[in-house]
Amino acid sequence: MKIVNVGMVGYGFSGEIFHAPVIQTIEGLNLCSIVSSNPLKVEEKLPGVAVVSSLGELLADNNIELVIITSPNATHYDYARQSLLAGKHVVVEKPFVITSEEGRKLIELAERTGKSLSVFHNRRWDNDFLTLQDIISFGALGEIRHYETHFDRFRPEVKTRWREQDAPGAGFLYDLGSHLIDQAVTLFGKPDTVYGDVGIQREGSVTDDYFHLILTYGPLRVILHSGSLVVKPGPRVLVHGTKGSFVKVGVDPQEEQLRSGSRPGDTGWGEDKEEQFAELTIQREEGPVSTRVKTLPGAYERYYQGIYESITENAPLPVRPEDALNTIKIIELAKRSSLEQRTLPFA
Q: Residue 326: is it exposed, middle or buried by C-beta count within 10 angstroms (0-12/13-18/19+)?
């Protein structure tokens, strides 16, 4: 089996919780080096993985084929550009970049260098999203007319971390919105129009902590919502079609499982509790009939398995950069729509 040596930039929350543990479960991927200012943390969590102090030092290692960028959003473009120029394959933590112009430049550079470029939109492998895709593929809901998904939390206190500072790429829309937008684009493609209501609700917040987006696709309305002052969340996903409805509560467990030390392949990985199974209601001649649908297991590991296969077998990327670019375009339009208080066409 071919071994792909991996270097990672950053070992904060994303690198520690989402990337490193999953990479280490993929046969053929060898996480061998990390750029970090906290070597003791890396050595404690990942014994045997080298720690280097700069991106330049990482890129100078000819044994490394794949670079994973998990540093703050504002660094994504420059670090990905340097990595591609150094002849490395690149995975960028979501959001892809800050502006669509940066995204276009990286896609062009990846094409010129012949290296793969992908974005870690891991929530395509959330258990609720996988289950919904399965339901839609069988035509159980008919033609979809209403798709609504929420990423609500109760976090009333503003934390002193870069995601909540007044800086490019900070805020809920880039952070949580990129997940919801990517899922919508995966299901429905590019929208016709974008409407955005993006704002601040918490006292002391200096960047957006609330958003409500409406994407139109002909008669279909896609609603993407997030708030930080939600004590009791409602349904996570609501989908209504010409034949039925799909309602799902609860959040995919993989993040919490990774936090607690579980890994892909462990017993119960990505599985829902029965009380969080979706309710599928189909309109029959005798009236609506509801059933519970067992949630398919979540599978974040499928992203990195796909990356490995794209490098070693020239398989399709699990997330194409062009799709991630559309997510950034929608974020830009949503922010502009909110400022101008009008619906904008997706161009």
A: buried
Q: What is the mean pLDDT of residues 251-279?
A: 96
pLDDT of residue 160: 75
pLDDT at 33 over 90: yes
Sign of the Cα pseudo-torsion (43, 47, 50, 55, in order): negative
Query: Residues 6 or more apart from 29 whose CB is under 8 A from it?
Result: 3, 4, 6, 23, 66, 304, 307, 308
Phi, psi of 95 (to 5 degrees): -70, 155
Sign of the CA dihedral with 272 first, then 126, 133, and 233 last? positive
Question: Which residues are within 8 A (CB) of 64 and not within 5 positions of it... i.e. 6 or more apart?
Answer: 5, 6, 7, 32, 33, 58, 88
Question: How crowded is the C-beta side of 119, counted as CA atoms within 13 Å?
Answer: 25
| β-pair type (193-199, 89-93) | unpaired
Q: List the one residue out of 217, 241, 236 whose CA is nearest residue 140.
A: 241
**3-state SS assignment for residue 338:** helix
pLDDT at 321 over 90: yes
Q: Enumerate the β-bridge partners of residue 212.
A: 197, 225
From the list 252, 259, 253, 256, the residue with the least C-alpha distance to 45 is 259
Residue 220, Cβ density class (10 Å: 0-12 exposed, 13-18 middle, ≥19 buried): middle
- Position 136 pLDDT exceeds 90: yes
Report, as an integer, the average pLDDT of 97-119.
98
Q: Tokens in use for 72?
A: 């703050």
Cα gap 129→136, rounded to integer Å: 10
Beta-bridge partners for 248: 237
